[in-house]
Design goal:
single chain, about 120 residues, mainly beta, Jelly Rolls, four-stranded antiparallel sheet, 11 strands, about 50% strand
Length: about 120
């Protein structure tokens, strides 16, 4: 499965080459982003609450992750992880995402494609 994420000034689009567009979210002026961090990370099996560096994004409005393993993310110190199997897209118009952690109990190293925009 090949999945891509396109973030433009007007939309966030997640595309699966086999199935077509999965998510197509229009971005209004309140969701204009000026900072974007894209990274590929590997998280070892058994890792718990591993911190994710937001790079140059001070406050995220968009958090997108695609993983080849079942992992979970906690945003802003939440006690409950949000599942990512195989992807998660979260949007906060107020730019409220300031920290995230990832947990991997899948049995294998998780390779994660991550986009944070604010």
């Amino acid at each position: 499965m090949a999945i891509t994420c396109e973030i433009t000034k007007n939309a966030i689009k997640v595309i699966d080459t086999a199935r077509g567009t999965i998510v197509d979210v229009p971005i209004t002026d309140s969701r204009t982003v000026t900072e974007v961090e894209h990274k590929l990370i590997a998280i070892a099996n058994g890792a718990t609450d591993t911190a994710i560096n937001f790079g140059g994004v001070s406050a995220g409005k968009v958090f997108f992750a695609k993983s080849d393993q079942d992992v979970s993310f906690k945003l802003n110190g939440s006690a409950t992880g949000q599942p990512c199997n195989p992807m998660i897209l979260m949007i906060d118009d107020d730019g409220g995402y300031t920290e995230a952690t990832v947990t991997n109990a899948s049995g294998s190293t998780a390779n994660i494609d991550l986009v944070i925009a604010g």
